[in-house]
Write a structure and sequence with these properties.
The complex is a heterodimer. Chain A is of the alpha+beta class. Chain A has two domains: 65 residues; 81 residues, PH-domain like. Chain A has four helices and seven strands. In chain A, the strands form two sheets. A four-stranded antiparallel β-sheet of chain A has the order 1-2-3-4. In chain A, β3 and β4 form a beta hairpin. In chain A, α1 packs antiparallel against α2. The longest helix of chain A is centred in the first third of the chain and has 29 residues. By secondary structure, chain B is an alpha+beta fold. Chain B is built from 16 helices and 20 strands. In chain B, the strands form four sheets. In chain B, strands 7-6-5-11-10-9-8 form a seven-stranded antiparallel β-sheet, with helices on both faces. In chain B, β10 and β11 form a beta hairpin. In chain B, α13 packs antiparallel against α14. The relative contact order of chain B is 0.08. At the A-B interface, β4 of A face β18, β19 and α16 of B.
């Protein structure tokens, strides 16, 4: 059974998440490929081999920007139900993180500069054993999820207090 | 003991001062020649010549610095308060960096007492508290020093309040106000106590000797012995003086490792009292741990390489508050045979009796294929490095090809060892997972202690319908071996069910 075939009602991301992923990928590549190109042009005499390598690097970079956000977008999904939060993501490696709702300690909403342009946020849930982040959520959706989870945490804390 | 507001014992000022002087001594040792000159100057020309050469100013500066450090430590001691207020413990520091550390007593996971040589001489104890917090899981949350009798009473009060909040008032842990050593013995009365003899401790130190240190020591001694027997000692010293010193250091290092373990585990004693585990050990620094069993996140059964050869096992607990600091260990047993291990586990942590680690299943055979696929990147990397070494660095062919091949072979050996050691056992109560390379480790954990499950699928494992991953605990993680994907989801269901 593939991770994909598990019978869970996953939610896929909104369309603008893919654009955000692409812009993020471009930003990362710009910070990596541009300095390499500039340094190569300054430090080395660009013969045929050097030029070919540089062209190949840029071709790979462009392929990365086109393909990776698409695959990541198609793979990314999450599910929040009464029992657990599940987040599935990945490009080559697919990972699925599963957190029982009752383990939640803290909820945090955050937004990076690119996220702000696309009006998306990320919800980070913290447990005693680490964090799990649901990324590329619309602002309203992130707020809605955070509020629902906050309520669940409070309910659990109240139940624990009663059971003592 | 009721609610209190107190300071640490004032000897803590001198304890910090002692550390400062150790640094000064180390610096001075670096300038040994200059010190010898100053002493000679003092002998020949007296104080006057010392003033002229500026040596006295150096001494005055050290004295002044000592006074400044003393004053800072005095202020720190004076402005630090330890407040025990009903079910809260507050450590308030009103120094330059003001802080107020408020801890709910119910969240305290460990109340440990220890004393070093200085504290033994002064008659104080250091109380170390740890809380169930991921952010401070690898450090001690509160470390305070009190006079012996006060420390004992303070610890007793804390444990009683912790027990009262846990609802087991009928089992006050270690109720008598006595010195921890007597207290430990008093608590052990009528209990089955596991006490280690000096032979057990030496054997434990040997069985758990790190592989690297063993290889270096054996290789170094063997090589040196071979050379000396063939070419003579004088020739060895003349040709390999550097090597001789290095071998000497390696042997000293290995012996130091043995002695350190022997000192750390000296008089290792463990017993179970109600809901707490009690451990005591140490020669120079006597350590006494109280570990509430409900705060144990997992049990680790370790088999370092030498232990694997001799079929020995030692057990550690994964819990917040024990094993956080250098030299501390979270062992609850020394190295034992399988039969002894079963007996001690049954007595010390019967809650984990369900974990029959002998029945562990080997990881899925597909794990070999996935590792083979993963190793391709290392083969490519080795070829590229070999090409680089031949074409650019111009190393001799045997070295340029041999080094990358050796590195690649070693990585692949690790893959093979990892597959050999990986196994799992899914029970209704929890999971048993084994793994490692040269050292084999079994981790046992109940579902309710598992916080997050990460399932990972490599493209190759996706084709084989298997996955690996990790289970995150409060202050540790258990790596999952390659298992069927549907089994991973069954485990996730059990973890979710474990919260109910």
């Amino acid at each position: 059974m593939d991770i994909d075939e598990k019978n869970i009602n996953y939610v896929k991301l909104e369309k603008n998440a893919k654009r955000c992923m692409r812009i993020s990928a471009m930003a990362v590549l710009a910070t990596v490929c541009l300095p390499i190109t500039v340094l190569a042009l300054i430090l080395f005499d660009m013969n045929a081999v050097g030029t070919t390598i540089l062209v190949l690097v840029w071709a790979l970079a462009i392929a990365y920007v086109i393909a990776v956000p698409h695959v990541r977008y198609e793979r990314y999904r999450y599910c929040i139900d009464e029992e657990a939060i599940r987040v599935r993501q990945g490009f080559i490696w697919i990972t699925e993180q599963i957190v029982p709702i009752e383990r939640l300690h803290k909820i945090r909403i955050s937004q990076g500069p690119v996220d702000r342009i696309f009006k998306i946020s990320r919800v980070c849930v913290t447990t005693a054993g680490g964090d799990v982040t649901i990324k590329f959520l619309k602002d309203e959706k992130a707020a809605e999820i955070a509020e629902a989870l906050k309520k669940k945490i409070n309910d659990i804390a109240a139940m624990e207090r009663e059971s003592r | 003991m009721g609610n209190i507001k107190t300071r640490c014992h004032f000897s803590i000022i001198f304890e910090s001062l002692w550390k400062f002087w150790l640094v000064i001594i180390l610096i001075l040792l670096n300038e040994l020649d200059a010190i010898i000159d100053i002493v000679q100057e003092l002998g020949t020309g007296g104080i006057k010549s010392l003033i002229e050469t500026g040596g006295l100013w150096g001494l005055a500066a050290i004295l002044l610095l000592t006074l400044v450090v003393f004053f800072i430590q005095f202020l720190r001691w004076r402005k630090t308060w330890v407040i025990l207020d009903d079910n809260l413990l507050v450590v308030e520091k009103n120094t330059l960096n003001k802080s107020k550390n408020t801890i709910a007593i119910e969240n305290i996971s460990a109340v440990n007492m220890e004393r070093n040589l200085f504290e033994r001489l002064v008659g104080t104890y250091r109380i170390k508290l740890d809380t169930n917090s991921m952010t401070t899981a690898n450090e001690t949350d509160v470390s305070i020093v009190f006079r012996e009798d006060f420390a004992i009473a303070f610890r007793k009060t804390l444990i009683e309040r912790m027990n009262a909040l846990k609802g087991n008032i009928e089992e006050p842990a270690l109720s008598k106000e006595r010195q921890p050593d007597e207290l430990f013995k008093a608590g052990a009365e009528g209990k089955k106590v596991f006490h280690s003899t000096p032979k057990d401790m030496i054997m434990h130190a040997l069985y758990t000797l790190p592989l690297f240190s063993l290889i270096i020591a054996v290789g170094g001694i063997g090589g040196a012995a071979w050379y000396v027997s063939n070419f003579g000692f004088i020739s060895f010293i003349r040709d390999f003086l550097g090597g001789f010193i290095a071998v000497a250091f390696m042997v000293i290092g290995a012996i130091y490792n043995l002695i350190k373990k022997f000192i750390t585990y000296y008089d290792f004693t463990a017993y179970r009292d109600g809901k707490d585990l009690h451990i005591r050990c140490g020669l120079i620094k006597l350590r006494s741990y109280t570990i509430p069993v409900d705060k144990i996140n997992a049990i680790e059964i370790e088999q370092p390489l030498i232990s694997r050869i001799f079929k020995k096992y030692n057990v550690k607990v994964v819990t917040v508050g024990v094993g956080d600091e250098d030299g501390e260990s979270s062992n609850i047993t020394m190295s034992l045979s399988k039969e002894q291990l079963k007996e001690q586990l049954e007595e010390l942590v019967p809650e984990y009796g369900w974990a029959d680690f002998e029945s562990i299943q080997k990881e899925e055979r597909g794990g070999v294929t996935v590792r083979l696929v993963k190793s391709i990147k290392w083969h490519i990397f080795a070829i590229l490095v070999a090409l680089l070494l031949v074409l650019v660095v111009e190393l001799p062919l045997w070295a340029a090809v041999g080094i990358p091949i050796f590195a690649d072979a070693y990585i692949n050996l690790l893959y093979v060892l990892s597959h050999k050691a990986s196994g799992y056992l899914v029970m209704d109560e929890g999971l048993v997972i084994s793994g490692g390379y040269f050292q084999k480790t079994y981790m046992i954990c109940t579902y309710k202690k598992m916080q997050v499950l990460n399932i990972t699928q490599h493209p190759a494992s996706r084709r084989l319908d298997i996955c690996d991953g990790a289970v995150m605990l409060l202050n540790s993680a258990m790596g999952l071996p390659y298992i069927k994907t549907n089994l991973a989801f069954e485990i996730s269901d059990k973890i979710i069910g474990g919260t109910k």
